[in-house]
Write a structure and sequence with these properties.
alpha+beta, 3 helices, 49% helix
Length: 170
């Protein structure tokens, strides 16, 4: 009887335990799959909403071809606001993970009111433009109005078609 237990029963008991553990794992996987299947419609709806949000966000990020047109529009808004540009210089693009920052150094002359009108018009553009490092100082008098010299960095963003770094998974 002891020999039977040692040679036949113990190996089968190990096999039963292994198969039982396998069954428990498969039941767990089945339970998880059922939970995913139960929520699949909700997940698909959520993916659709996220894709719509991404599409909307991308309309605010110009691509490489649209950057020159955007710069022309900013220049045009400055001239329409009666500002005189002393410097209008795009700086080197700063790539991030999925987008790139496109800074634009601006130095211009104009009245306080016209400067405010210019920034108001920029804020109403469909593209995202951040104005940073803004400085303003009196420069000269023109008639009864003091002209101010303002400088800032206007940064827009563009979508990078492919993520930075080669071999990265999407």
């Amino acid at each position: 009887v002891g020999l039977y237990g040692y040679l036949a029963y113990l190996p089968q008991r190990e096999e039963i335990r292994r198969l039982s553990d396998q069954r428990d794992m498969k039941l767990q996987e089945l339970s998880e799959s059922r939970a995913v299947a139960k929520n699949l419609e909700r997940f698909e709806k959520e993916v659709g909403q996220l894709e719509a949000q991404l599409k909307e966000a991308l309309t605010q990020l110009p691509n490489q071809r649209e950057i020159p047109e955007l710069l022309k529009n900013i220049s045009k808004l400055g001239k329409e606001s009666n500002l005189e540009f002393l410097r209008f210089r795009p700086s080197k693009e700063r790539p991030k993970q999925f987008y790139a920052e496109v800074p634009l150094e601006l130095v211009f002359l104009g009245s306080y009111h016209n400067t405010g009108v210019f920034f108001d018009r920029i804020s109403k553009m469909s593209r995202i433009i951040n104005v940073e490092n803004f400085k303003m100082a009196p420069n000269q008098k023109s008639g009864n109005q003091t002209l101010l010299q303002a400088q800032c960095v206007a940064t827009t963003f563009r979508f990078l078609e492919e993520p930075r770094g080669k071999g990265q998974k999407k």
